[in-house]
Amino acid sequence: MSGTEGDVLAWTVRPFRTEPAKGISALVLVAASIYFAARFGGVVLGGLAALILIGGTGPFFVSTRYRLTPEGVEVNSPFQKVKRPWAQFRRAYVGRSGVSLSPFRGRHLLEPYRSVMLRYGSRRESVLEWVARYGPGSGDPAEVGS
């Protein structure tokens, strides 16, 4: 799913497909870490390592669907399901691989847990246009910045 339908921007990002070497390296590192944790720390430590490492790297290996409407933002993947109105976001941070929408006016300790990351995929310009139009600052270029 990729494109715009009226007042909707929808696209899918599959990081593993675009960067398979990085994904294979991560798989090898995760598998080795789990093996050594289980071998030298026992089954419980190995299981805990598996949960933490698979949970942390999992989003890289699955498809994430994004949908932007004039009302809000939707993110859907096996690891994250988010549906929030634009009004909940106070600031947008533009990065190399995506835009982070934060509910805080400035930097905050809870930002990594409360923000929503919109990965560009192949839609960088479209995503930035939508965030500038509907997101924090309502089109004010000073608000949508790094």
Q: Could you please describe the fold and organization of this structure?
A:
With about 150 residues, the protein is of the alpha+beta class. It folds into two domains: about 5-15 and about 70-145, no CATH class; about 15-60. It contains five helices and nine strands; from the N terminus they run ββαααβββββαβαβ. It has a five-stranded antiparallel sheet with strand order 1-2-3-4-5, covered by helices on one side. A four-stranded mixed sheet has the order 8-7-6-9. The longest helix has 22 residues, at about 20-40. The protein is elongated and about 55 Å long. The two termini are about 30 Å apart. Mean pLDDT is about 90; it is low at about 140-145.
Envelope shape: elongated
- Contiguous low-pLDDT stretches (5 residues minimum) are 139-146
Termini separation comes to: 28 Å
Alpha-carbon Rg, integer: 18 Å
Write down the domain tally: 2
Task: Tell me briefly what this model is.
The protein has helices at residues 15-18, 20-41, 43-61, 111-114, 124-134, and strands at residues 3-4, 9-13, 64-68, 72-77, 80-85, 91-94, 98-102, 116-119, 144-145. With 146 residues, the chain is an alpha+beta fold.
Features:
27% strand; alpha+beta; elongated; 2 domains; 41% helix; 146 residues; four-stranded mixed sheet
